Amino acid sequence: MPETLPPDCVGLVEPRTLHFSDPLPLACGQSLGEYDLVVETYGTLNEEASNAILICHALSGHHHAAGYYSLDDRKPGWWDSCIGPGKPIDTNRFYVVSVNNLGGCHGSTGPNTVNPATGQPYGPDFPVITVRDWVDSQIKLADRLGIQQWAAVVGGSLGGMQALQWAISYPDRLRHSVVIASTPRLTAQNIAFNEVARRAITSDPEFHGGRYYEHNTVPRRGLMLARMIGHITYLSDASMGEKFGRELREQAYQFGYDAEFQVESYLQYQGERFSESFDANTYLLMTRSLDYFDPAYEFNNDLAAALRHAQCEFLVLSFSSDWRFTPARSEELVNAMIAARCRVSYSEIDAPWGHDAFLIPTPRYMDTFSAYMDRVAREIGA
């Protein structure tokens, strides 16, 4: 825990809940009559409301992207390395809005919140949400905050999909789209990983068809396995080898099936932590949203056609060792942007940490990100 806050930190922060009472139509054909979004904001909105940045989170992320809730916190927000004074997203220049997506489990309306029609948690009755639905809810958020146009919409992984969808759905409402460690659609292998993770959850005897709230229980084992599967895909073989190798917890083989290797112990620890903090129905929803994302689908599978009306500039970043969303997928996106005559900057960052590299402040990554965001700031006189 910090004894004093570092000078490049946004400081102590508080989330706030915004209620929306206008119905939100969803891609699945249903609608939410009312809903809450939990947000955190950092920095100051200028008089023209032109310096606002929207942060979109990844699968297991949330609104707490930077700063600390108290001096007793062990860790800051999940992207504190990139948000704050003097950092790539400089809060001396930008007003930063970080939102917990609909369907999340950290305060925004989702499966673990109360359905006003029944007085009980939504549970499995919560509708499947798509990336486009998230963006539709975020435009309502922008309107509520008085932001007509974002200086940039920024996200990594699933957050990058949202940044891309913004450029397609609301081309005049953002100046820049920053798409990091993402993809224009999942490969069959990625969909397969998501299905195995979902099956781990739904096969847990404590899942109860998604109505585990009513049974005062949690499908902990299923969530743990799902996280272990996911975590393996977020790391590279090299990074796991460097961190754990084949090190044993004890000095010799135990000839049993408990965790004997350090990597086994690490994965179990990550799974146990996750099962205590994340909602199983939300995990199902988020992974299905990943599966469905494919902006080319409605344009006869022509990604360039989907991007043709985009007005913003793009920054696309990939990481050399990311085998979950490989650089080839980012290059596919960049090629489609070029074909659509979009203005795009692209860099593949050499980093050994796999998909999680977008969370690690390596020098080349920070320099590239900072240079681009500096240009965004200078464009609006910030």
TrEMBL record:
Protein family (similarity comment): Belongs to the AB hydrolase superfamily. MetX family.
Class of this enzyme: transferase
Residues involved in substrate binding: R227, D356
GO cellular component: cytoplasm
Pfam families according to UniProt: Abhydrolase_1
Keywords for this protein: Acyltransferase, Amino-acid biosynthesis, Cytoplasm, Methionine biosynthesis, Transferase
Keyword presence, Amino-acid biosynthesis: yes
Main location group: cytoplasm
Entry protein name: Homoserine O-succinyltransferase
Biological source species: Tamilnaduibacter salinus
Function description: Transfers a succinyl group from succinyl-CoA to L-homoserine, forming succinyl-L-homoserine.
Domain AB hydrolase-1 residue range list: 52-359
Catalytic activity: L-homoserine + succinyl-CoA = O-succinyl-L-homoserine + CoA
Binding partners and assembly: Homodimer.
Entry-linked NCBIfam families: homoserO_Ac_trn, PRK00175.1
Active site positions, chain numbering: S157 (nucleophile), D322, H355
Keyword set includes Acyltransferase: yes
EC number: 2.3.1.46
One example GO MF annotation: homoserine O-succinyltransferase activity
UniProt site positions, description: Important for acyl-CoA specificity: R324
PANTHER family to which the protein is assigned, alphabetical: HOMOSERINE O-ACETYLTRANSFERASE (PTHR32268)
Known pathway: Amino-acid biosynthesis; L-methionine biosynthesis via de novo pathway; O-succinyl-L-homoserine from L-homoserine: step 1/1
InterPro entries recorded: AB_hydrolase_1 (IPR000073), AB_hydrolase_fold (IPR029058), HAT_MetX-like (IPR008220)
One GO process term, biological-process aspect: methionine biosynthetic process
SUPFAM superfamilies reported for this sequence: alpha/beta-Hydrolases
Places the protein is found: Cytoplasm
